[in-house]
């Protein structure tokens, strides 16, 4: 009862919606006042279109079990409509000019709102009456309170278009207002069926960026035959797709480095689930662009495991739960899960320990700060004898397919662990840019790498730093030739 009493103290009496949902249809919309109003969609039916495309964050456009209100502005000002932290189900909101009218605003998961509750804001016009629709994701129903108040609402982070390989890709971007010059950049990748707005709003990356002084980009994957967003890591049920996600993410990172003055030597990538598997793929194929990787609860499909040959050895942080029912800790070489065959997680870890040349183990049992979460954390730190690279592995004993600190294990905050790992990576000492293979000389081997990486947008042989590998790079390489 405390939350209800608290709201009453702030906003006056709460009006509770009739359980029969008399405002179940737009034509029977009830008037809603500014302040706090209780509502229920438990007996509501479907009475409107799907979630508008503008608000689809990768979870589909299901928008059902809805109720309707009329909302009249008594002044021209910003208006915030919110179920944020005040409903017991996954809510969705939309605002229209009239029944079957034009869409004005919508929201699925509000910025910083728990439980996938919603918050939307729009510019109200004095005397105009709007139609407000309140419903749930995929016909979820429940109860809660909805607030209507004047204000500008939280800052939005819109999708930004980015052209790559003939496709219009999208990303969201966040940076602190006091971002320092040559700041680090982190790319954060969503899981299968997820979307970048979920990663932006629900995993603590904006607050961590403010604290750590770095920029963060949230790219979107493309959609598959089930309309689910994904990263193309060659799942068994995606044989028809050949999406250049490697090139998209690398090109996006280089684009942000150049246009915003971000540090190419401190550009990192992390991701959850399918996003974690994309991280492993990038560690194998795009190590020229990214200087550290942090896959959270992912695996390497067997074809990638067998073909992985990174150009550069980069630090890696990884996490897995031993009781994960999606990414099986013991592997799935028989493909019982349908993702494709993959080896046991410990075998994958051994690959990276060998690849990074980090045989020295420091094992730590982390404090069990939340004994009620059903899991504990073991951290294995692997280092080498003659270099600074490290491989960090968090084994979540009893953990499932969860993002620690956000769900499942609460002993650690995965976002904080990842950023602390990235922040500790020392930028490489600049050398001769023409010495592409790092052997201390500029010669035929480096020329071979330029030819192998040849192309617009290819940075592997980009000696002069213009974002392309072409004849200009050969000229600079020959000028630096040592034999």
Distance between the termini: 79 Å
* CATH architecture name of the largest domain: 3-Layer(aba) Sandwich
> Superfamily at the CATH H level of the largest domain?
Alpha/Beta hydrolase fold, catalytic domain
Task: Kindly provide the radius of gyration, computed on alpha-carbon positions and rounded to a whole number of angstroms.
Answer: 25 Å
Characterize the biggest β-sheet.
Answer: 10 strands, mixed
Walkthrough of the structure:
This protein is α/β, with parallel strands linked by helices and 483 residues long. The protein has three domains: 2-150, Jelly Rolls (Sandwich), CATH 2.60.120.380; 160-423, Alpha/Beta hydrolase fold, catalytic domain (Rossmann fold, 3-Layer(aba) Sandwich), CATH 3.40.50.1820; 431-483, Type 1 dockerin domain (Orthogonal Bundle). It is 20% helix and 25% strand. The protein contains ten helices and 21 strands. The chain has helices at 2-11, 196-202, 205-212, 245-260, 274-285, 302-307, 345-355, 414-423, 444-452, 471-479; strands at 30-31, 35-40, 63-72, 77-82, 91-96, 103-107, 119-124, 129-137, 143-150, 160-164, 167-174, 185-189, 215-219, 222-223, 229-230, 267-272, 293-296, 316-321, 360-365, 376-383, 390-397. The strands form four sheets. A ten-stranded mixed sheet has the order 10-11-13-12-16-17-18-21-20-19, with helices on both faces. Strands 1-3-8-5-6 form a five-stranded mixed sheet, with no helix packed on it. Strand 20 and strand 21 (390-397) form a beta hairpin. The longest helix is centred in the middle third of the chain and has 16 residues, at 245-260.
């Amino acid at each position: 009862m405390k939350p209800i009493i608290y709201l009453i103290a702030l906003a006056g009496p709460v009006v509770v919606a009739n359980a029969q949902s008399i405002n179940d249809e737009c034509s029977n919309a009830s008037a809603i006042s500014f302040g706090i109003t209780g509502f229920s969609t438990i007996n509501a039916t479907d009475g409107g279109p799907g979630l508008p495309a503008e608000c689809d964050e990768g979870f589909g456009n299901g928008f059902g079990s809805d109720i309707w209100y009329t909302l009249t502005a008594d002044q021209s000002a910003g208006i915030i409509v919110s179920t944020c932290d005040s409903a017991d189900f996954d809510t969705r909101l939309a605002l229209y000019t009239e029944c079957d009218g034009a869409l004005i605003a919508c929201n699925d998961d509000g910025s910083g709102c728990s439980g996938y509750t919603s918050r939307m804001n729009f510019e109200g016009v004095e005397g105009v009456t709007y139609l407000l629709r309140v419903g749930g994701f995929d016909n979820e129903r429940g109860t809660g309170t909805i607030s209507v108040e004047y204000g500008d609402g939280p800052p939005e982070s819109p999708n930004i278009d980015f052209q790559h390989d003939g496709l219009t890709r999208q990303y969201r971007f966040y940076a602190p207002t006091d971002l320092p010059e040559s700041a680090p950049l982190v790319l954060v990748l969503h899981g299968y069926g997820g979307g970048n707005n979920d990663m932006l709003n629900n995993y603590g990356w904006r607050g961590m960026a403010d604290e750590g002084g770095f920029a963060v980009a949230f790219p979107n994957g493309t959609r598959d035959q089930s309309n689910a967003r994904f990263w193309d890591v060659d799942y068994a049920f995606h044989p028809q797709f050949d999406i250049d996600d490697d090139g998209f993410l690398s090109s996006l990172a280089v684009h942000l480095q150049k246009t915003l003055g971000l540090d190419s030597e401190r550009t990192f990538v992390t991701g959850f689930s399918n996003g974690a598997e994309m991280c492993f793929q990038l560690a194998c194929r795009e190590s020229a662009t990214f200087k550290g990787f942090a896959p959270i609860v992912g695996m390497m499909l067997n074809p990638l495991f067998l073909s992985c040959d990174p150009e550069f050895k980069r630090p890696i942080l990884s996490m897995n739960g031993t009781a994960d029912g999606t990414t099986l800790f013991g592997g799935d070489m028989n493909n019982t899960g349908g993702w494709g065959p993959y080896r046991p997680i410990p075998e994958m870890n051994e690959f990276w320990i060998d690849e990074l040349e980090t045989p020295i183990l420091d094992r730590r049992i982390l404090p069990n700060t939340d004994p009620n979460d059903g899991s504990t954390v073991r951290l294995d730190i692997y280092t080498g004898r003659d270099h600074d690279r490290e491989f960090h592995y968090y084994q979540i004993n009893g953990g499932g397919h969860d993002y620690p600190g956000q769900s499942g294990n609460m002993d650690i905050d995965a976002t904080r662990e990842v950023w602390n790992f990235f922040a500790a990576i020392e930028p490489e000492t600049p050398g001769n840019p023409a010495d592409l293979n790092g052997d201390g000389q500029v010669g035929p081997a480096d020329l071979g790498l330029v030819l192998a990486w040849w192309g617009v947008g290819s940075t592997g042989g980009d000696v002069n730093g213009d974002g392309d590998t072409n004849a200009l790079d050969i000229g600079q390489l020959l000028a630096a030739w040592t034999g």
